[in-house]
Amino acid sequence: MRKILGIITLLCCMNTHAAEIRITPDSSLTDAIRKAREMRRKGQVSEVTIRLLAGTYYLYEPLRLRPEDSGLTIQGENAVISGGMEITQWKRQGKLLVADVPDFNGYPIDFRQLWVNGKKATRARDVSDFEQMSRIRTYDKKNHILWVPRKAVEKILKAPYAEMVLHEMWCTSNLRIKHIAIQGDSAAIRFHNPEAKLQFEHPWPSPMTPNTGHPSPFYLTNAKELLDEPGEWYHDVREHKLYYMPHAGETIQKAIVPVLETLVEFIGTAEHPVRNITVKGIQFSHTSWMRPAEKGHVPLQAGMYLTEAYKLRPQIDRPNNHKLDNQGWLGRADAAVELRYTENINFNGCCFKHLGGSGLDYVIGCRRGTTTSCTFTDIAMNGYVCGSFSPEGLETHLPYQPTDFREVCTGQTVEQSEFYDVTNEDWGCVAICAGYVSGITIDHNTIHDVSYTGISLGWGWNRDLVCMKDNKVHANLIYQYAQHMYDCAGIYTLGNQPGTIISENVVRDIATPSYVHDPNHWFYLYTDEGSSNITLRDNWTPSEKFLKNANGPGNVWENNGPQVNEQIKNNAGKK
Predict the structure, then answer these.
(1) Could you say which DSSP state residue 260 is in?
(2) Residue 396 and residue 454: Cα distance in Å, rounded?
(3) Is 294 left (phi over 0), alpha (psi -120 to 50) or beta?
(4) pLDDT category, 5, cuts 50, 70, 90?
(5) Which of 40, 249, 504, 553 has the largest count of CB atoms under 10 Å?
(6) Largest Cα–Cα distance in the chain?
């Protein structure tokens, strides 16, 4: 039975009362938060710290913090908040270990990740080395058919839920396979909706066909027939069985599957934000994001998925911008921790790890708040996300200038943090992803081993005046980026951002996968469409490989490249 251990200390100092509630993993976090809320409501104390003692705190639904919880501190001592469930009672079946997957909270589950002995296992796929991925042959937009080599799909002809992950310039699409028809040495693949309609109607990003010289690669996954390498797994959702192929000599000490998509939600309103909460020393782990399994996943950029998109004929004239050839509306993946309408919500010394969606997301209406000395690793999608990426009802190329500025995320800081092995499933995501933001500071972070871009700042593909301004990207160290995708940069911008300064960063050592759509289309710094009124100064890069694409006015480039002062070069990154 869960219980709160109780108030260990109650301190009184003049007119200020402070209390501490200590709990253990067999206690209820929700009950502890309610206890703290009631203590403050009754005037017993004004400050409460909930201290999580060492261990893993498993949740059955997201922990919700509301305006009534303002002023709280949540501190961990080797504490993990988990959205996972342990799988036990494994049995040997030939080369495989097999376990029954029980219901969670009274209902059957599906999942897209498995962690064995603290490491992410590989969802069964047709290649262990991505350099060996097959290439598409023909892309039939009219009939919604993708033609591939026959030998690439022969193993999965009878697999009921097989998926294709398709490489497309700066994104990857997750496509659920509906039917495969063999014709000679080729195979015609059709996909389920809604992703089939989205995939073949949206113009950007596009797969590369053989006539480009770099036909798009793909890999296949989620079929038992592909389970042939140590470290791989497959979940038979019909039979509720989990199959895992262990490494030589490996025994399963602990196996965790995710059952939640979000662990913590801060839920305020514009009039009543959640205020002044600090979270210290907590690890957030074991989430999933199930839309790709249910509806596929066709992103536009940075993991923001399309809900409708198509080519425009004739193109739309846009004053102050070039003509527009497509329309698109977007949705946003879930994150482990999500904030809506908050003020001064801070994360210090936290770890975002083993996550199937994004890590930390200041979604809308957040004012101030720092993320300091945190670690982001083993994350499927974006690490840190902040601001709007066009509301669901706003076509994504239209300028976003809300009447109520309280919608805009303003004054956030992410600093002295490290990002690595993020974007490890959705390769088109980024480490730090800031959209329509104002006054954000991205300072002294270290970013490495990411699939695409390191820092993305701005949104909209439009040079009109919007809500973005006064952003700072300073003294970050970015290397070994673009592990899987090109058309990228260490630091990338979009849109009109008066007062924005990008300074004293170090970008170096891009990865060189052979299968990218254009092996030369990568950059250290990249001001993309509509980028305006941005200053880029004193950024060290090994060469001046920069791109200024369809920029607006007012950009200033000063002293960027290998000649930048050695002291600036040595000062970048987490200290």
Answers:
(1) B
(2) 22
(3) alpha
(4) low
(5) 504
(6) 85
Helix (H/G/I), strand (E/B), else coil: 571: helix
Nearest one of 342, 321, 313 to 201, comparing CA atoms = 313
Residue identified by tokens 């069985």 is 241
Compute the distance between CA of residue 413 and CA of residue 443 in angstroms, rounded to an integer.
8
User: Which residues have CB under 8 Å from 61's CB, separation 6+?
Assistant: 260
Model confidence at 3: pLDDT above 70: no
CB 437 within 8 A of CB 387: yes
Which tokens in the block code for residue 334? Answer: 């879930």
How are the residues of the chain apportioned to helix, strand and coil, as percentages rounded to the nearest 5? 10, 45, 45
Contact by Cβ (8 Å): 63, 89: no
Instruction: Read off the pLDDT of residues 407-439 as tens digits, 9 standing for 90 and up.
Output: 999 999 999 999 999 999 999 999 999 999 999
> Which amino acid is located at 358 in the chain?
S
All residues at 6 or more sequence positions from 465 whose CB lies less than 8 Å from its CB, including other chains:
399, 401, 496, 498
> Of how many residues is the chain composed?
575
Neighbour tally for 117: CB within 10 Å: 14
**Regarding predicted confidence, which is higher, 46 or 192?**
192
Q: 3-state class of 67 per DSSP?
A: helix
Please enumerate in sequence order all residues whose Cβ is within 8 A of that of 154, keeping only pairs 6 or more positions apart, or say none.
none
Cα gap 473→381, rounded to integer Å: 21
Amino acid present at 466: V
Contacts 24+ apart (CB under 8 A), 306-313: 306/198, 306/202, 306/330, 306/331, 307/194, 307/198, 307/331, 307/392, 308/198, 309/198, 309/201, 309/202, 309/203, 310/201, 310/202, 310/203, 311/201, 311/202, 311/203
Report DSSP state, residue 166: E
Q: What is the 3-state secondary structure (H, E, C) of 376-435?
A: EEEECCCCEEECECCCCCCCCCCCCCCCCHHHCEECCEEECCEEEEECCCCCCCCCEEEC
Predicted confidence (pLDDT) per residue in 264-308, tens digit: 999 999 999 999 999 999 999 999 999 999 999 999 999 999 999
Q: How far is CA 194 from CA 294, 392, 561, in A?
A: 9, 17, 45
pTM: 0.97
Looking only at the bridges linking them, the beta strands covering 163-168 and 134-135 are unpaired
CA distances from 130 to 165, 232, 409, 479 (A): 11, 15, 38, 20
